[in-house]
Amino acid sequence: MTTMEEQIRSFIKSNLVVFAGDAVFTDDDNIFELGYVNSLFAMQMLSYIENEFALTVDNDDLVISNFATVTNIATLIRKIQGSQSA
Amino acid sequence: MRTAQEILQAAQAFAEEELRPQAGAFEAEEEIPREVIRRLAQQGFLAASFPVQYGGLALDPVEYGLFTEEIGKACNSMRELITVHTSLVGESLLRWGTPAQKEHWLPKMARGELLAAFALTEPDVGSDARGVRTTYVKTEEGFLLQGRKKWISFADIADLFLVIASDAQTGEVTAFLVERSQTGVSTTKMSGLLASKASHLAEIDLHDVVVPHENVLGRIGGGFSYIVNSALDHGRYSIAWAGVAIAQESLNAMATYARTRRQGGKLICEYDAVQALLADAHVQLQAARALCLSVGRLRKDKHHEAMIQTSIAKVFTSKMAMKVATDAVQVFGGNGFSNQYPVERLFREAKVLEIIEGTSQVLQPVIAQQVLRTCHHRGAEA
C-alpha cells in the first residue's frame, strides 16, 4: 500500500526541473532551496493535495515551509484531515 | 436563474448590439463610456464566473471561456476589462479573500459599482513579481505603500487596485487591496499605445498610502507563490480565449471580404492563394479552440496540470491570433491598412496578446521544463 509520503514524493519527482538524473532528495530536504522545482510548483502542489486528499488548505497554512519538504507536506495534510474530520 | 446557454446567447446579443458597432469608435476615442460598462454590469457580465451568492452568473471555466470569446470577438477592450476585473482581481478575491473581504467587495464588483484593476507591473518590472520595487512597511495604522505601477489596464477609471508590493526589509511579496479614494493614490492615463487604446491604461502612483490591515489579500509574504501566480493563471486563461476571439473575428472578416471583393474579373475567394489563407486560419483556429476547451475542462476539475496547460494555450492562441490577423490584413490588401476596416485594429490587438500576462518568451522556459520531464525516452539519460 502506498503511503502518503510516497504519494507526495512521487508527485514531486514528476515535477522536478533538474534533468541530469542526480536529483536525489530525502523526505526532509527543502525542494525549493535545492532548486528542484519551478515558481509554479507551489500552486501545483496546492492543487494536487486539495484534489488528491479532498481537503481545503486555509490561507493561514499557506506558508512556503509547509510545502518545502515531503515530511512537512504530509504533516500539513494530516493536520487538516484531523481538523476537518473533528 | 438563466442557464449557461441563455447567458451565452445574451452575451452574444449584447456584443452584437452594444459592442461590435462601436469597438472602432471606442478605440478612436480611447475610452469605453461608463454607460456601456454600466449596461454590461446590469447583465451580470462583470461577474460571469462569480458564484450566485456574490451576484455572479456562476459560469464554469468552460462556459466562462466561451463567454470571454463572445465579448472578445466584438470588442477587445471590453474583454480586457473582464480579464482584469473578473479574472485577475475577482477570481483572486474568490480564492484568497476572507469571508468579510468577499462579502464587502465581490457584490459591488458584480454590480459594477466599482471597477477593479490588477497592479503588478512597474516601469522596470514585468510579470515577475519577485522583482517589484513598490514597497510596504508594517505600521500600527496599517501598511505604508510607496511605489509606481505602470501598464495597468483600466487603472485610469478603476476604483479598486490589487497592488503587489514587496517588504522593504525582507523582500517578501504581499498583495493589498487599495482603494482609489485612499490618500496618496493617483493615476496618470497612458497614451500613444499600439493597441488597447480604449482600455484606460494608466500609471498608478502610490505615495505614503496607508492600507488597513484588513486589506491584505491572503497571507503576508504569500503574494508571489500564491496570489500572483494564480491571478496570472486566471489572466492567461482569459487571454487564451481572447486569442480565439480575435482570430475568429479576423477569419469572419476576411471570409466576408473575400466573398464580395472582385479582382481580375472574379471574387478573390475564388483564388487558390486566398483559399489557402482561409483554410489555414480555420485549421489553426479550430486547434486553438479545442485546446482552450480542453484546458477549461482541466480547470473545471481543478487539475494540477491546469496551470501549465493554460500557459501552453495562452502561448499557442496568441501566436495563432497574430498569424490569422496578419493574414486577414493580407486578404484585405490595401484596405487592410486602413482603420476604416476592422482588421487593422484586430491586427494591432492580436500583438498585445503575445505580451500581456507574461510574454511568450517568459512562458516558454516553464513549458520547456514540462517537455523535458514528460517527453523523453525513459532510461536513455546520459
From TrEMBL, chain B:
Entries under InterPro entries matching the protein: Acyl-CoA_Oxase/DH_mid-dom, Acyl-CoA_Oxase/DH_mid-dom_sf, AcylCo_DH-like_C, AcylCo_DH/oxidase_C, AcylCoA_DH/ox_N, AcylCoA_DH/ox_N_sf, AcylCoA_DH/oxidase_NM_dom_sf
Residues covered by the Acyl-CoA dehydrogenase/oxidase C-terminal domain: 221-371
One Pfam family this sequence matches: Acyl-CoA_dh_N
Cofactor: FAD
Annotated SUPFAM superfamilies: Acyl-CoA dehydrogenase C-terminal domain-like, Acyl-CoA dehydrogenase NM domain-like
Residue ranges occupied by any Acyl-CoA oxidase/dehydrogenase middle domain in the UniProt entry: 117-209
Keywords from the UniProt entry: FAD, Flavoprotein, Oxidoreductase
Domain Acyl-CoA dehydrogenase/oxidase N-terminal: 4-113
Family to which the UniProt record says this protein belongs: Belongs to the acyl-CoA dehydrogenase family.
Protein name: Acyl-CoA dehydrogenase family protein
Species classification: Bacteria, Bacillati, Bacillota, Bacilli, Bacillales
